[in-house]
Amino acid sequence: MKKENIIYIGIAVVAGLLIGYLIFGGNAQTTTSDEHDHGTEIASGEMWTCSMHPQIMRPEPGSCPICGMDLIPADNGGEGLAANQIKMTENAMVLAGVETVMVGAGVDGEESIKISGKVAVNQQSDAVQSAYFDGRIESISVNFQGEEVRKGQRLATIYAPALVAAQQELLTAANVKESQPQLYKAVRNKLKLWKLSDAQINQIESSGLVQENFPVYSNVGGTVSEIMVEEGDYIKTGSPLVKVANLSSVWAIFDAYENQLSLIKEGQTLNVTTNSYPNETFGAKISFVAPLMNKQTRTLEVRAELDNKQGMLKPGMFVQAKVEVTNKTDGEVLTIPESAVLWTGKRSLVYVQPNPNNSTFEMREVELGNLMNGSYAVISGLRPGEMVVAKGTFTVDAAAQLQGKKSMMNQGGETMQMGHEGHSKMGGTMQMDFSQEAETKFGELLKVYLDLKDALVASDRGQAQKLARKGAGMASQINGMQMDDMGKSHIEQLENQLNDMGSKSNLEGQRETFVLLSQNMIQIGQQMQGLEVKLYVQHCPMANNDTGANWLSLEEEIRNPYYGDAMLTCGSVVGRID
Length: 578
Description:
single chain; 578 residues; alpha+beta; conserved putative lor/sdh protein from methanococcus maripaludis s2 fold; Elongation Factor Tu (Ef-tu), domain 3; 9-stranded antiparallel beta sheet
């Protein structure tokens, strides 16, 4: 029995070891295999970049091939996004004031389209007073452009040798007019061809005196728009002396987009308004639609004549007009707000939010129809129910530029390309049209912005907040001045960004807003024609969560507003605005 017990015990031990191996050994092997595969998956998806040169991306750690710094793990927040997509944080969306709307349907019927333009001189009533004989300008009786002249008013005095000789012929012919009436008549007609009146000729004949300096009188009444000669100038017959415009009737010249042409015809009624007289509406009719299109802007000139007997409308003034049309399209059409559209040359772009629960936006090119009551009809590119960015569109596009994504100004979706001497190739097809008053005021706002930048360099949050509030007030003033729709959209964003920055008392929040503020200032500054200073566009690759940010400076030397003393000289010059 003792032997048999030992045998049974031995068999039990062996069986237990075998079962334990099958259960625990197999599982251990499986677990090890799973952990290995998961680690391999993580390692395969990790990328490494340089903090100073974020365009460098490597699958494994090492040194930057440009500056030699150790590479750091790249931010995978944008992993899986296409080149035309951008991901924003919730905080950035609130900061930018991003709002989305659903692509909706508009009902057909009596509608209106909006067109913008400027007041111009009515060329049909524009007259040029010319010289009718050779001579020398002895004196000019009109002193400045804008002076009112009456019909028959003296404009200038001319010494004309040929006219002196003709007067002597008249006096001689007058003595023999009884015997040689045909000669006398021919001499008088000769003087009439030089625009001398019968009264002037009779005065010369009755006085018996020859006038050396002869006056030139205005044939029309109106406003002097240009003085084309100076005292002492020698002129020829037909030389222009003064240009006179009759401003009792003016033209309003509008730019109509290509997709609006089918709705605009000669004879249509316009309701014209201007910011100068917000409570006034001027009636007009379309008198001319240009046969040729502007190839660069893809617009057509539409002209209407306006009654201006009260002198309220001035040439150069910005005006808007509503054209009453009937939309004859059957059924319903998709519509999006005018503020959702970014125009760049021939292309019209919008930012779509594919998932309302995800702060990812996708740039999409769309084909649009007519603009009616502040909304565009959508021909293609969008589907019913999709969400598009209606407010903060320019800010979303600026964020896409900073991340090297496709954008309105960067169709290729590449990071900023550096030219000679480290300066970026900046530019774009976007155009803005500002009045001289708005450009002058923007120059003053630019000085406040540069002081604001210096306050951030000095990490003075109190001064930065004070200057931001001051700049917001100036931007609000500019917003009430004359400019086109694209310029107004940028100025409105500028005002919002400055107000947001003025409401923050912490440096981190101020610097976060300064990223978008600077991008907007750069875009507007590139469109200004009368800036009196040279500006340097500077770039810090480590700002804005290592995605990079720009700012403007008067000095080429780097003084970083995003880090202050912590990294005062971090950055480089990437462009200039002269």
